[in-house]
């Protein structure tokens, strides 16, 4: 099983320490456990940025990175985590504990999480800058404020709290935005498994199947490959495909309708994000095919615009122009191409953006604008390309034959020196290829 190594996490901590400068401290907490109902919790998923720096997936953990007065002293990594506890481990599973934090996660120092308030104070005192991810957890924010107050309370003894509090997300988010070859390998694996799941869905669908039964086909492929969905799966038959975040997936799939599936998995904390739209009975109707090909043309052209140096918005601009021209050609919209684009009248049928950063989080971190301008693509950025067209079932401005058709096609694309690299190419998307695959299943 392909995984990142401790050397990868160590390298990230070293980069962060370099960015922090001398005599500084960074505090990064993982996510709290989320309750589902009463005493049943959701399966735990560590915070992405915390895992990015530590490789540590247990709950109740805090990483502390310190730099010192001189560069020669390097940096230190302290991990606060749950202690080993035989009873708790019998009930709830294995813990690395203090020894494991040092031996398996390369911590220079490790402490029981219960000692955090006590042990953090001497580390904070006399540091110049505190880097902290403000705004993720109000309870933890309040705790950090208490530490600062307490550290300042010691000033008469010649110590003080850091004078500067800096938003740590800015630094980590920029690091996470550019993917290393090792990260891209994991994203390729996630994409391959998700592509296999979509292929299985195309092969399995039949009229009168329930949407959730089709979702189960996807979940089987994710699960047997050691993956979990990277977001709630959307399996929308017919007009449900027009609801952008439809996740009920509890209706019947009807003969003659399309089904839109936006579903993908994460592998070793790295996400993929795929949408395919295909006919429940294996054959596109003339209207479905005509609209589908407009979206596909827009998507292929938009993918081609994911090139180093192009603005982040270029794929969207390319997609919108092709979608609007297609709507005009099919008589679904009337008027002037440029006017429809400038006035954004196309939002009646295309109301979302064409993509987002992808990485450890499905809507990944990293700013989209720099100095007020859409930033250019750089090598190693990964973006989704996901144009769509949605004709609302009650839209009386269009001929009835188009109503209730919702189509989106989504792939994951890396900006590389050789041009766009499509991670999710293993699942078919032309009308001909989809119909051929479904006919042979
Ligand atoms: N699956 C979420 C999205 O496409 O943004
Ligand atoms: Mn997406
Ligand atoms: Mn998606």
TrEMBL record:
Pfam families: AMP_N, Peptidase_M24. It catalyses: Release of any N-terminal amino acid, including proline, that is linked to proline, even from a dipeptide or tripeptide. The keyword Protease applies. GO terms for biological process: proteolysis. GO terms for cellular component: cytosol. GO terms for molecular function: manganese ion binding; metalloaminopeptidase activity. Residues 4-141 form the Aminopeptidase P N-terminal domain. It is an enzyme of class 3 (hydrolase). It comes from the Bacteria. CDD domains: Prolidase. SUPFAM superfamilies: Creatinase/aminopeptidase (SSF55920), Creatinase/prolidase N-terminal domain (SSF53092). InterPro entries: Aminopep_P_N, Creatin/AminoP/Spt16_N, Creatinase/aminopeptidase-like, Pept_M24, Peptidase_M24B_aminopep-P_CS, X-Pro_dipept-like. Its cofactor is Mn(2+). Keywords: Aminopeptidase, Hydrolase, Manganese, Metal-binding, Metalloprotease, Protease. Its EC number is 3.4.11.9. Belongs to the peptidase M24B family. This is Xaa-Pro aminopeptidase. It comes from Acinetobacter wanghuae.
